[in-house]
């Protein structure tokens, strides 16, 4: 028998042995869930689970039976997803196969709500599984309801919330179903809320949660912004001109809501100054004008009700887009230097019509935005325009649209885009965390 190590078969787990190839690739789209006041209260994490096993090799599938539920649970529990939830609960779409996988038991019940498809086969085995999971304190939501059919009736006793498709249900049935569900003590979730009219109609019917992008649409000034329109325009134009500390301080003092947020940001752990600042000038000097300019641009989206930054859906959307474009543009070999430098601002200003109202091209023209940024936002030209399409597909969880948007950017892959989006979401959500939150700080004259 040879004593030569090279002659010995490799031991399981030995150094140099390749780990087994993953059976599944899992990534997520992230969609905001708002409460009746328009404040972020949860995120739906829309999963894409891709089977990587070779269908031409029957031995692989026989020897290694698939466990998409375990793969989904592992991906959902991973640090990037936890960080992207920014302290909010995650709503997770599941299938029957996934429900029966004990990998779900590794998740924290207080951090997840399972969304059940309304066409789920409802037999005694499924009911027993729901009861078992409910006993472990997991909670369920019935997803995408358009009519109360037999499956709906069987699943209803086991769910805490019912999500109704505003545009898929018959108009005369909506108020009746909403009334019955409220009387039954169910949390009502409106999906497909894409306009202010949708939001107001569902709110009047007693809905508790809202999904859709109505908050990012132009509502002709309906949003309670942090300053008058002319003041925001003046500040934006100043920021575009590389202002001095004194100029920035003078302009910001005209907007107390922005000052409040900037003071909180400067005192937050995310800025890492190490000591408390008490004046606006000190905050500007301590953080640096470049970094402060970035956050001031984002704070133009701040809600006039002094909502915390991590709970403001529009600001989170703009900040996540901005950071996503910045990171992704650096990964694209074909992106020009000018596009890489403009990437953050392209993300920031892609939502600017929600603040000012009116067509976005008119608002962009008022701000004298640089050509690559305008072309990306208005016409979706260049690498930045393509990346905006990628980000919007991720926001919607539209996988076909994501594949199509990534195709011209190859080798930039959908999975890479999804990973960058989670990183960007974490960055956006941590800005206000652990900050001083005792109201408006003192500003010296």
From TrEMBL:
Transmembrane segments: none annotated. Residues 1-23 are annotated as: Disordered. This is EAL and HDOD domain-containing protein. Residues 225-415 form the HDOD domain. It comes from Paraburkholderia denitrificans.
